[in-house]
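Re: the 219-residue chain
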Amino acid sequence: MNGSIDAQGDRIRFVSDQVLSDDWYLLRKVTFDYRRRDGLWQRQSREVYDRGNGAVILLVHIDRRTVLLTRQFRMPAHLNGCRDGLLIEACAGLLDGEDPAACIRREAEEETGFRVRAPRQVFAAYMSPGSVTERLHFFVAEYEDRDRVSMGGGEADEGEEIETIELPLDEAMRMIDSGAIQDGKTIMLLQHAHRLGLEALRSSVPVCTFCSGAGGAAR
């Protein structure tokens, strides 16, 4: 990669790409020259964490006006001020080479026990672009009692112990205000549902205009 020009233009020249850790995921130190708007070149280094891309889904019961969320222990949150480390989240997972829709169907069934019939992507976003490569694909889907096929709970052999929580959407929005819900991807989906209204999320109503050809995991 030394001396190469980025495909997007002549503003980035890669100098070196050093692997710092390749244990659970990939941590790299990337050194590059960046051409500023005044034309001057500046050498910069960034540590970049690559854990692949992911998907997240908000399960909604429109007639009951509820959402289905999860609660599980998160060590990074525990280390940064969350005393018990338990976060309330929308169901999510890494693509690991899967199509985003296939991934989120599998993850939702493993974590919540509900089989997702018609996941629809509503947007995608880089969640921490200053240091993490991950692009997250956001989905919504309806759930009904008849869709339950197991108790969920995640994969115990992977250290997962996941609780399923059903909440009225209005209560979930109040929990954002109170700080009871602090997970960013979950807040984004809840605000999306609240802004549009649950009726707009019915499977017969199109909610995404750009989602064809959504990318898979990048390593």
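The radius of gyration is 20 Å.
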